[in-house]
Amino acid sequence: MGLATSSQLFAFQLANDAVCQNAMETQLPDLKFAIEPPRETEKGCGWDLGINMTAVHDVGFSPSEVMNRCPMAAANTLWIKQMNIRAQEILGKRVTTVLHFDTYSCRNVAGTSRLSEHAYANAWDISGFVLEDGTTISVLKDWDKAGPKAEFLRAARDEACGIFRVTLSPDYNAAHANHFHVDMGPSRICR
Ligand SMILES: [Zn+2]
After folding, report:
1. In which element (H, E) is residue 53 found?
2. What's the pTM?
3. Cα of 117 from ligand 1 centre, angstroms
4. Which of 16, 57, 58, 73 has its CA 20 to 30 A from that of 132?
């Protein structure tokens, strides 16, 4: 828990966009990213400083880009490193690709009139992983199966809980049966 707590503090310290961008460029050399220009919509959606990541520590993404606000991108980076340590412990193999759904989407939290953290490019939905030998691990298909794939998925979720403000897995509700939702919004949930 000690490392995870300090990781979360690190991500929070990057809440200032200028500090965050500088940290991304100087302290995270394994991160491949481009700056996304600010965007604001009529509905109040958008971001100030977007970080469009294509790889972290040799881990790629499918789809190939993950665009988040800078502090969220920092949290993603920390989580990918921790998640991959657990993959090697539990599965004996590295993760090479994180499978995901959207990051930015101008929409409300389902069933409410409140904007989702996705509307601020401050959230990410993760649906699975590909290992170095080509094995796919699916949140939907493997979460409820006994064995190392399910053990790894729980470990990846637990690592996320220590880094992101909000981590929702299939344990949360049926809407998350096929993905982990993580965000750096004001709520605090780990399930
Ligand atoms: Zn989500």
Report:
1. strand 50-56
2. 0.90
3. 8
4. 73
